Amino acid sequence: MADISFLMLIFFLMVSTMDPETGLARRLPPMPPENAQLEDLKVNRRNMLDVKINSRNGVMAGGQVILSDAQLEEIIIEFLTNPNDRSDLPSKTVKNIEGFGEYPVSEGVISLQNDRQSLYSKYIEITDVIVRAINKVRDDFAIAHFGAVYNDLPVDKQDIVREAIPNRLSEAEPLDVTKQ
After folding, report:
1. Residue 82 CB neighbours (<10 A)
2. Tens of pLDDT along 18-44?
3. Which helix (DSSP H) or strand (DSSP E) does residue 75 occupy?
4. Looking at the 3D structure of the chain, how many domains does it have?
């Protein structure tokens, strides 16, 4: 009986699959030097896009109720590019990018905040939409200036694209509306 149990255990271990661990690929900023002083960074209100997920998994961006991922992606792309230089969208600072020259870089920051009662899957979905929108803006820049999408560029040109289209995503601490 013990031999049969052992053989069944080995059989099920061999034929069963383990789900790989999944998570968000994030690169943390480097640690500041030990003697560095912390300062509160003040961001101009026009340079901030608030994306919020409420306890019922509803999404708002820039004061608008978002009904689809495509709508959120459009809002983020318009926010980051500000094609018509609108005064309610982020300002741009002309930056000298090494190996490229001067380019107006957006000062836009996307702030993502969720409620503690929102679903983790919704948080992941919205984070994916934000990253997809940033990648689309980077691809558009790369195609316009280098003739290829961002991932197909050599490392030095990818550095230029990253400097011209920075990924400024701020993840605020989740809210707990049940305590208010």
Report:
1. 19
2. 777 666 666 666 677 787 776 666 767
3. helix 69-81
4. 1
